[in-house]
Amino acid sequence: MCVLVIVVVRTVTFPSYQTRPPPCNVTDQDFIPATKDRLDRLGRAVTFRTISYEPGRGTPEELLKFIDFIRDSFPVVHSSPLVTREVVGNFSLLYRVKGSDRSLKPGLLAAHLDVVPVTEEPGWDAEPFSGQQKDGFVYGRGTLDCKHNVMGQLEALEFHLKRGHRPKRTLYLAYGHDEEVTGQYGAKRIAKLLEDRGVKLEFLLDEGFAVTKDYVQGVAKKVALLSVTEKGSLTVKFSVRMKGGHGSMPEKESAIGILSQAVTKLERNPQLNLWGSGPGRDFAEHLATEMSLPHRVMTSNLWLFTPVIRWLLAQKAGYMNSMVHDSDCFRSEAVAIVDHRVHPKQTIQDVLDHNVKVIKDPRVKMEVLKSLVPAPISPSGLESPAYMVIQESILQVYPDSLVAPFVLSGNTDTRHYWNLTSAIYRFSPNVMTPEDFPRLHGVNERISIEDYERTMNFYFHLMRNVDKPLVVRRHEHDVDL
Ligand SMILES: *[C@@H]1O[C@H](CO)[C@@H](O)[C@H](O)[C@H]1NC(C)=O
Ligand SMILES: *[C@@H]1O[C@H](CO)[C@@H](O)[C@H](O)[C@H]1NC(C)=O
Ligand SMILES: *[C@@H]1O[C@H](CO)[C@@H](O)[C@H](O)[C@H]1NC(C)=O
Ligand SMILES: [Zn+2]
User: Fold this and answer.
1) Whose CA is nearest to atom 6 of ligand 3?
2) Cα of 419 from ligand 3 centre, angstroms
3) Among 195, 241, 336, 360, who pairs with 324 as Cys (CB 3.0-4.6 Å)?
4) Rounded mean pLDDT of 23-46?
5) What is the 8-class DSSP label of residue 71?
6) Is any atom of ligand 2 closer than 6 Å to the C-beta of 25?
7) CA-CA-CA-CA torsion for 422, 428, 434, 439, nearest 10 degrees?
8) What mean pLDDT value characterizes the chain?
9) What digits encode the pLDDT tens for the residues 239-260?
């Protein structure tokens, strides 16, 4: 009975994390319309085939043409006495827009100039490097990942400076040229340069996931996923080699048999389910008040329902991908490659220890092929001014949406910037439904003209909103159970 009362009270009184800043309006004096010029510039940006193939192997001529195009496209940015521009690692760009108030720590907006290759050319409704406009969309590789961010940020800055803006807070724009292949020659060098100069940032915003529609269960509105961390990754090679062995005399236990058992054990004993600690919990709580009733009851009462939600999620979560190779069964060696995604609350060692504990068979050798530790978790919520200023800028251009902190599954250039600030966020200001997800790195990558207009205005609002001291807003938990 008592539990029921608590559940009801919490459901009814749970605080909302959503805010209602004044929306951006096409009638505003400083609204940036998606004019023909601006759309054409985005289209032209797509025509440069700035493909990354592997670390150190990209498309140098295309990158050089693209950065020249950028220089010629934004004359105010490139002639302003407030702006310095550096080419880093031959192809990456670092801009610094000097602010007048040295007490304000700089902000940094990141994106990247490179794109992934196009493998399935037929199937596109418009040629993938045409930048063609069709049915209200701009088509092509890079329109979502992420030349729209590069061009949108520069359009906003160009517009802002042209109107006579003199910033108080210094702002960096950092565009790596090899993000798609680990960023080691681009963003890594930019980060090193900034570190060597002793730069400390107030916040950093890079590309990320989108404003999603029909994606979060129990929520009718669109949800902007503002990532506060990234999963790590770990690729492990398991191998079993049987001694001696004549090809013609199969042993009682074959290498592949032992290995298959090991992989089966791993699949039956997934890594510790950590939902309920850290960002997963924050995600649910940020949306709690906006959910349909059954979801709302659960997410307002995670003290009670966390195990239930863990169980529900475990029913569909994939913790790893595995590939079992029988490299040569007659010579009795078998190899399995397992890709783990590492939860931000786990370490690489936790995952390895778990594997050893579960497999319990010394004949199975384990070798780490590559690993990336999960990103630190950036603060979110009302008490984090950097998170809130990004949230509010999103809500100004997407007033019919909600914002929630998220864990990005993939990795971005932010992995190189950890030492510059603890407030690192990832978000791309375009709408996506689950049917659109395959467009990323896939066929028919495209952005709607409306979304590109929002992209430009989002960055413009953000530039304006961060150009003052960021304030913490405390919020009261009136029922703390
Ligand atoms: C935009 O501004 C106009 C004129 O000021 C106003 O009538 C309209 O309601 C506003 N729209 C929104 C979405 O705020
Ligand atoms: C940059 O260009 C110079 C001169 O062309 C070349 O020697 C150097 O290897 C290049 N560096 C990178 C990182 O590509
Ligand atoms: C941060 O700084 C430490 C110490 O200088 C360095 O070892 C580390 O590689 C840096 N991290 C990143 C992500 O650059
Ligand atoms: Zn990207």
Assistant:
1) 419
2) 6
3) 336
4) 97
5) H
6) no
7) -120
8) 90
9) 998 865 554 445 567 888 899 8
